[in-house]
Amino acid sequence: MLNMPTNKKPRTPSAINIPASMPFLRTYRDYLVANSVSPHTRNAYLSDLVQCATFSKDPIPYWNHEHISTVLDTLKVQDKSPRSIARILSALRSFFKFLREQKLRTDNPLAQHKSPKLGQALPKDLSEQDVEALIYAPDTNTTLGLRDRAMFEVLYASGLRVTELITLETDRLNLKQGFIRIKGKGNKERLVPLGLTAIEWLEKYLNEARPKLYQSTIDYVFLTQNGGVMSRQNFWYMIKRYALIANINAPLSPHTLRHAFATHLINHGADLRVVQMLLGHQDLSTTQIYTHVAQVRLQQLHEQFHPRG
């Protein structure tokens, strides 16, 4: 276990500015915090509710079925996507659930409203060859290149969310046993194994590169060139930059290597429930999307190699 300074500076997104005319949202925000809802989800819910409040002169806590219908009609006129509408309905459902739990309401004005069908959103596919090219793209003779190689190796070996990677703390590493402890969504912890290759590159980074970046008491594993905490946007730019170097033309997202991790495990015969545990999904149905990715891949291979494909 690494012994590093432990004066941590938690990184959270900027809080949403709640208008003075909506004090009920402050109480709701405290409720979300008490229920360990992530800062990103809290901000999304609060932002959506502030937006919704502009659709009616009546305060949201007093809305009924007709108010919700007005919101949906307004969103459609604004040409909002089904995904945006579903997200706003999710915020409203959470808020009215809060009101019922606080005994402020007994009904649910959203009971007759269903979220729009979104279809099956398949993760962006990245071949094993593309992953290898991306991982090899950083120049490991440089401090930042060594950091980036270690980040890619850890991400592909563990399937972490990008937020989990950039906020990974040194005291959560156990490289002797080959595990890291991850605090995921809802503050739920899980143990994630690392392969030998990822451990080797992580140790190399910690011994050779991180001391050159470490300029304060920040206890995160991966630091910026100024010794600060990397943002999701920083990581996204990094992915795109190395994709250009590696001549990767496949669509990319910040979770490219997480999706590749899950898809490649299933392609090689991993059990779906094992992948669920590694990814930190609470519901197996969330993981089942990767079986569709694998089926598409199998169909492509069949068409390519079967004599009657």
In short:
The chain is built from 13 helices and 3 strands, in the order H-H-H-H-H-H-H-E-E-E-H-H-H-H-H-H.
Topology:
Layout lengths: L22 H12 L4 H15 L11 H13 L4 H20 L26 H9 L6 H16 L3 H5 L6 E2 L4 E5 L5 E5 L2 H18 L18 H14 L10 H12 L4 H8 L4 H4 L1 H17 L4
Oligomer state equals single chain
**Structural class determined from secondary elements:** mainly alpha
* H/E topology pattern: HHHHHHHEEEHHHHHH
Instruction: Enumerate the spans where pLDDT stays under 50 for 5 or more consecutive residues.
Output: 1-11
CATH superfamily of the largest domain: Intergrase catalytic core
> How many structural units, i.e. domains?
2
> Within the largest sheet, what's the order of strands?
1-2-3
Per CATH, the class of the largest domain reads Mainly Alpha
Q: Architecture of the largest domain in CATH?
A: Orthogonal Bundle
Average predicted local confidence, pLDDT: 81
Report the sheet-strand fraction.
under 5%
CATH T-level fold name of the largest domain: hpI Integrase, Chain A
Measured between the Cα atoms of the first and last residue, the distance is 53 Å
